[in-house]
Specification:
The structure is a single chain. The protein is α+β, with helices and mostly antiparallel strands. Helix content is about 40%, strand content about 20%. It has 13 helices and nine strands. The protein has a seven-stranded mixed beta sheet, with helices on both faces. It has a two-stranded antiparallel sheet with strand order 2-3. The radius of gyration is 37 Å and the shape is elongated. Bound molecules: 3,4-dihydroxyphenylalanine. 3,4-dihydroxyphenylalanine (DAH) binds next to strand 8 and strand 9.
Length: about 350
């Protein structure tokens, strides 16, 4: 094996450049002959090891320049062939429409929220939004929850340590206060959003869930308007002929207050279990906005009246699809989520 020298490298490069690379097979043969495991470069590297110490530096540089030139020649030949192939056409029709790309499915909470909002949209309600990190005023005080009042215990609250006035909103009723402060009546709005309560996670409770709040304020709004609006809503969501009832209840921000139930039926064992033997299912809280709440947000209760309501989206989705465990909404198990493809 003779020692490597510049003249030989020059000759090898000239030979390489003269080799046939005019088609894909020839190019592949070139690649194997030069860059392959038994190829020229491998051979040259071995011979480089035998170069005497004092020549190593200079020869190393020459060998590197050779490798780069060889690679550049190969890359250029390859690019030339690809361009030629493209020009001739590879036989594939690039104008053909692609196959359908599966994009997954909407989350059931999103499906129900959209359905509820579209029912209220048809009745002239627009959508309003508010922050999830709130202050005491918008979640409690502005809604007529006095500071030490036990009604605050109904909603186990996450407070934010850095600032005792800040908390995670426990209901979307906070957005009512923001909108009443910001705008003049008439107001006809629905307010969807995420809410937070310090609850242990179980099949029926979760520390995060979703609500939709409604608010209607104008001159001469009455309890009859509330009942009719909610009846239309229930019929659109659960089917015409759906029966509702309003049971007296208590919320600090409404007077009178009610709980709305829909008649679910008592035909099957499941009906009996989920309605606790009554046939009725609770869907939401509602009532006439307390005059003190209007006044606190700068609306004159002598001129305006209004009603409000609030419902949990998970609860309605559970009824709609007979989902037995609330945790399913938050686990994002693809086998659960994929079942809603048809609905979305
Ligand atoms: N904010 C109440 C809750 O989370 C639900 C509610 C009840 C909202 C009555 C209302 C209402 O607007 O009028 O339990």
């Amino acid at each position: 094996m003779s020692t490597l020298n510049q003249a030989e490298l020059d000759r090898l490069l000239a030979e390489a450049k003269a080799a046939d690379v005019s088609n894909a097979d020839a190019l592949e043969a070139f690649r194997i002959a030069h860059f392959g495991r038994q190829g020229l470069l491998k051979d040259l590297n071995e011979r480089f090891r035998a170069v005497p110490g004092q020549e190593k530096r200079e020869m190393g540089q020459a060998l590197n320049a050779f490798k780069q030139a060889l690679q550049a020649h190969f890359d250029e030949a390859k690019a030339g062939l690809t361009a030629e192939e493209d020009a001739q056409g590879s036989g594939a029709d690039h104008t053909r429409p692609s196959g359908e790309v599966p994009l997954g499915s909407h989350h059931p909470i999103r499906i129900v929220r959209r359905e509820i909002l579209s029912i209220f949209d048809r009745m002239g309600f627009t959508v309003a939004d508010g922050p999830e990190i709130e202050d005491d005023w918008h979640v409690f005080s502005g809604l007529n929850f006095p500071e030490e009042h036990p009604a605050r215990d109904m909603q186990d609250t996450f407070f934010i340590q850095r600032d005792p006035d800040l908390l995670l909103r426990t209901h979307t009723s906070s957005v009512q206060v923001r909108e009443m402060e910001k705008r003049e009546p008439p107001l006809r709005i629905v307010m969807p959003g995420r809410v937070f309560r310090n609850e242990a996670i179980s099949a029926r409770a979760h520390c995060i869930f979703h609500q939709i709040e409604g608010l209607y304020i104008d001159r001469d709004v009455s309890f009859a308007d509330l009942k009719q609006t909610l009846l239309v809503f229930a019929e659109q969501l659960f089917g015409s002929g759906t029966k509702i009832r309003l049971r007296p209840s208590y919320f600090p921000f409404t007077e009178p207050s009610a709980e709305m139930d829909v008649y679910w039926g008592l035909e099957t064992e499941v009906d009996k279990r989920i309605t606790k033997g009554t046939g009725w299912l609770e869907i939401m809280g509602c009532g006439m906005v307390d005059p003190a709440v209007l006044e606190a947000s700068g609306i004159d209760p002598n001129e305006f009246t209004g009603f409000a309501f609030g419902m949990g989206i998970e609860r309605i989705a559970m009824l709609k699809w007979q989902i037995g465990d609330l945790r399913a909404f938050f686990e994002n198990d693809i086998r659960f989520l994929e079942q809603f493809t048809a609905a979305s």
